[in-house]
Write a structure and sequence with these properties.
Elements lengths: L1 H26 L28 E2 L8 E4 L2 E2 L8 E2 H13 L3 E2 L2 H10 L7 E7 L3 H14 L3 E5 L15 H9 L3 E5 L13 H19 L5 E3 L7 H9 L4 E3 L10 E2 L11 H8 L11 E4 L8 E4 L6 E4 L15 E2 L2 E2 L4 E3 L8 H7 L3 E5 L3 E6 L10 H5 L5 E4 L2 E5 L2 E2 L13 E6 L4 E6 L5 H10 L2 E7 L2
Helix pairs in contact: 2-4
Amino acid sequence: MKRLIVPLIALLIVGGVAAYLYYGPSLNRTPIVVHPPRLKAPSKPEVAELPASDRVWTAGKDEIPVIMYHDVVPRKQVWFDLTTRAFEEQMQAIKDAGANVVPLSDVVEHLKSGKLLPPRPIALTFDDNTVGIYENAFPILRKFGFHSTQFVHTGKVGVKTEKGHCTWDQLREMQDSGLVEIGSHTVDHPADLRILTPDEVRRQLTDSKASIEKEMGKPCRYFAYTEGNGDEQTAQMVADAGYEAAWGEARAWDAAPADRLFLARFAPFRLEDILARWKGEDARPATLPAGTTVKIPTAAKVHTESPDGLPITLTNEVWAGIIPNPDNPDDLGGIIVPDMLFNATLAGKAPPERQWEWTGRPLVIGNPDHAYIVAYQPWIGVSPDGIKVLWPETSFAVVGSEQILHEGAPVEAAVWQRGRRLATFIGWKTDGTPVLGKTNHLCRREALISALQALGVKEAVLLGR
């Protein structure tokens, strides 16, 4: 028995030392405190995304570049020609970038129904049906296995004008390869459909569609505006003629929200912009779409709060359908919004030079019932009706510089420069209470985000250039 006592005591001592080494130090550690998120959701309103319509497609999550080529020739004859060598170099650059050339129909299905696309999707199109497309571009496309869409003006098929044009047999040969789809580019290629009579526009649209369907034996689903010229009246006639989608010449990615009658295309010399975006060298901020059911508060319309010690003036007036100050259209509820404002009564065509700058930036639209954040697209600025095409219930819309909060969390900085600034912002809280405000002191981005989180803001867009 005595022989067992000594080993037992030793075992207890060793076990005690081991237990202390394992558990003891933790007894003296400072406990880790996990703070709950500052943003709470006492009531979560419904509505998350902008509703789709027959005209506006919202299902797509990717941004897809579509390139608009014209003739491909050994030596350039006009400025928008591309040499055969330059064209092949562009196809090689697309391949080297790890991009995937997809049919235009895949672009449509992605935007319309959310069809999954491979990484870095891109689509290729050709206007004017010049014979150089068949003789010089098509062999290169076939070599790379790249799809394309040709927009044909049917009155010039097989006809030589300043340039020769492909015959129906050549078009059928390309279509039979499985790499080419044929779309309409009118009958006679009028420079501007907007100045023609409605009857003549209808003839250009319907006759060309009928000819293509008869000769090619397949539906003609797509249309390209000649020289990119179209307006709302023309677009309605395009839809009435039975086209599923139409492309212009706006410099932008095809992305949601997408007006199916005003889709965008890049000129070939903008391929560098596309490659830069893929390489992460394009500094355009990302917009994260969101929506809410607005909860208009009964408190004073204009008041000041100091969350986290940062004085902020807030107003709710804009969400009740305010009409901007006619002497200063950027004045919303006493707060100057230093950027483009759309309004049902004051909206005008957006300046073309601003379209590229605005593309992809957060656009906040709202009325007394609902609010949404979407990525701005050039078609919205085509006419004063653009906002109403986007969402017929819109009371006001503002283009922001960048989104700073999404789902209550900071969005990576893209526009804000180092240092302090006065900031103007718009958004809403978790329960749908709208906010529009400005800081009364210079502040850093981090301080503004902290203050807005302290206010319980869920979505916020920074305004100003």
